[in-house]
Design brief:
alpha/beta; 5 helices; five-stranded parallel sheet; Rossmann fold; 5 strands
Length: 135
């Protein structure tokens, strides 16, 4: 873990939700480093780049499902197919945080072997910090 704290990535295209999450982390004085990506492709490309360069990877990813360019489903597929085999003994915990209330989406996300849990937006402050401190 870096001196500044654990890396947490928020992969979500909603600027209001991004701002809210950043604000919650700042209010709590969290020493976690929060990085924001607006779609799954940006996050996958950054993961691939960091794996190649040996840079520090996130400990937790907070993933939205519905985004432009590459949605959360595409991210999970690429993560499972491309990233997990390169992680070796490292562990990245993924939580899906989405506004969908569709039981099929929730079930599909929870059944993905890369996903630890599913939360419906807006995530409560207590849930966010429980998730952020899990790794």
């Amino acid at each position: 873990m870096s001196e500044l704290g654990k890396k947490i990535w928020l992969v979500d295209d909603d600027p209001v939700y991004q701002s809210l999450t950043i604000h919650l982390f700042e209010m709590e004085g969290s020493n976690s480093q929060l990085e924001v990506y607006s779609n799954g492709l940006e996050a996958i490309q950054c993961l691939e780049s960091r794996l190649k360069s040996g840079e520090e990877l996130p400990k937790v990813i907070l993933l939205d499902l519905f985004m432009p360019v590459m949605d959360g489903w595409g991210f999970l597929e690429e993560f499972d197919n491309q990233i997990t085999q390169s992680l070796k003994d490292q562990n990245i915990i993924i939580y899906v945080i989405s506004s969908t209330i569709d039981p099929d989406d929730i079930s599909r996300a929870k059944s993905n072997k890369c996903v630890r849990d599913f939360f419906i937006k807006p995530i409560r402050r207590e849930e966010l910090f429980k998730v952020a401190n899990c790794a």
